[in-house]
Amino acid sequence: MRLRRLTGLEREKIEDELAELLKTIAELKDILSSDEKILGVIKKELLEIKDKYGDERRTHIDMTAIEYIEDESLIPNDDIIVTLTNKGYIKRLKSDTYKTQNRGGVGIKGMATNEDDFVEHMLNLNSHDFVLFFTNKGKVYRIKGYEIPEFSRQSKGLPIINLLQLDKDERISSILTGNKDDKDVQTFVFVTKKGLIKRTALSEFENIRKSGKIAILLKEDDELINVKTACGKNEIVVGASNGRMVRFDENEVRIMGRNTSGVKAIDIPDDVNVVGFTVLMPEDNILIVTEKGYGKITPISEYRLTHRGSKGVKALNVTEKNGNMVSIKKVDDFESYDLVIVTNSGVIMKMPMNQISVLKRNTQGTRLIKLKDDQLLSTVAIVNKEEESDENDELNSENDIVNKNNFNEENIDTTEDNTNEVDNSNE
After folding, report:
1. pLDDT at 208
2. Integer Cα distance of 313 and 301 in angstroms
3. What is the 8-class DSSP label of residue 149?
4. Among 118, 111, 112, which Cα is nearest to 378's?
5. Contact residues for 91 (Cβ-Cβ < 8 A; gap 6+)
């Protein structure tokens, strides 16, 4: 087509659009000038909406929900891990922070702690579950999981005294979850330093104020050693500093109320204290550690099943060489855990669990740590294996790559010779 003809067609199109717009403007002005026509348009449009959306309502509007919606309803339900160190630093992390690794993995560092501190308690729960803190004074405190501050994987955490109204000499002895939906947990088991034990139902700890509540009645010279959960089918093992240990069925201890003292778990002299207890199954193992740095692992089947309140059986040959028993722990996986040993002078040593000898019941154990001067063991804990330092490993690997690229074959031979000279001098 010629350009003149194309221009004419485009002009006709614009003129037609202008005529159409003028016609629409005239109609709209006519409608706006008459109230009757405005109502007619509204009626027509509403009838069209009615015909299109006039079916029955599929949703229900509940205005009463406004009364019970709280800030907690806006917090997501996440799986979290709560960690508490020996020095009282606490934090929470999301469970997916710790990625699954195959057997033999190096793990990741879960918390940056001081040289004289380590992670003593670790609890896996939901962010809306209650966390129960039991102290050596026999009190219990309760907060929701999401109330514990969330920190990064490398951070140390927050002092727990900022969350709980603890007394001056009060310290946390156990942290547990108060989830009633867990069918494997029916009761809490309490054991004191003077050998008393009691079981209490989870329902007794539903209403706990911020200032805490009494979990067990203690005498003036007594304190709470530890708290464990039990399902009604477990066995209880209680160990004393004189090397005696009693093993009995948990159902020998009747369920009592919260504001009670309990019954006798083991018969011990006045100068002997309970150093630990655990709840286990017949196929588990027991770790025993003494005050002079000796220890051993023994299958629980080595200790005969007795009754509550008895003097128990000899769990350890207590001599002047190894000293009194200071701790007992349940051991179920030798490869995934380390043993942390802390002395009364603040020295800390970590060693793999699989390096501890498995010995018979009537033995004194093997040396775990060489103590100097008048040092004695004060604290023992079983912790998850962790990599010492992720950042240092990455830097070391980068330096190794750079060094390899800088060396040629001749330099490598020379370096090996120099290395041998250094090794000989060190010897």
Report:
1. 86
2. 12
3. P
4. 118
5. 82, 83, 111, 148, 149, 150, 151, 155, 156, 157, 158
In angstroms, the CA 342 to CA 349 distance is 7
Phi, psi (degrees; rounded to nearest 5) at 335: -85, -25
- Which three-class secondary structure state does DSSP give residue 119? strand
Structure tokens at 364: 């004194």
Task: Give the C-alpha separation, 227 to 268, whole Å.
Answer: 20
Residue 105 confidence class, pLDDT cut points 50, 70, 90: very low
218-262, pLDDT tens digit by residue?
988 899 999 998 888 889 999 999 999 999 999 999 999 888 999
Summarised one tens digit per residue, pLDDT across range 159-217 is: 999 999 888 889 999 999 876 666 667 789 999 999 999 999 888 888 888 888 999 99
Query: How is residue 391 written in tokens?
Result: 């950042």
300: its two tokens:
């629980």
Full DSSP string of 187-241: EEEEEETTSEEEEEEGGGGS---TT-EESS---TT--EEEEEEE-SS-EEEEEET
pLDDT score recorded for residue 386 = 61
- The pair of structure tokens assigned to 169 is 């000499």
Beta bridge mates, 197: 191, 263
Tell me how crowded residue 141 is: count the other CB atoms within 10 A of its CB: 24
Residue 264 confidence class, pLDDT cut points 50, 70, 90: very high
Nearest C-alpha neighbor of 330 from the set 299, 359, 305, 364: 299
Output the CA angle 7-9-14, nearest 5 degrees: 95
Q: Are 95 and 79 in contact (CB under 8 A)?
A: yes
**How far is it, in rounded angstroms, from Cα 291 to Cα 374?**
11
Q: Which two tokens stand for residue 2?
A: 């010629």
Instruction: Strand 244-249: give its sheet, edge to edge.
Output: 274-280, 235-240, 244-249, 313-314
Instruction: Name the pTM for this structure.
Output: 0.67
CA distance 143 to 129: 9
Contact assessment for residue 291 and residue 323, using Cβ atoms and an 8 Å cutoff: yes
CA distance 3 to 11: 12
Handedness of CA 195, 201, 202, 203 (dihedral sign): negative
Q: Are strands 255-256 and 196-201 parallel, antiparallel or unpaired?
A: parallel
CA distances, 256 to each of 202, 204, 253, 348 (Å): 11, 10, 9, 39
Measured distance CA(82)–CA(79) in Å, rounded:
10
The residue whose two tokens read 């179920």 is: 332
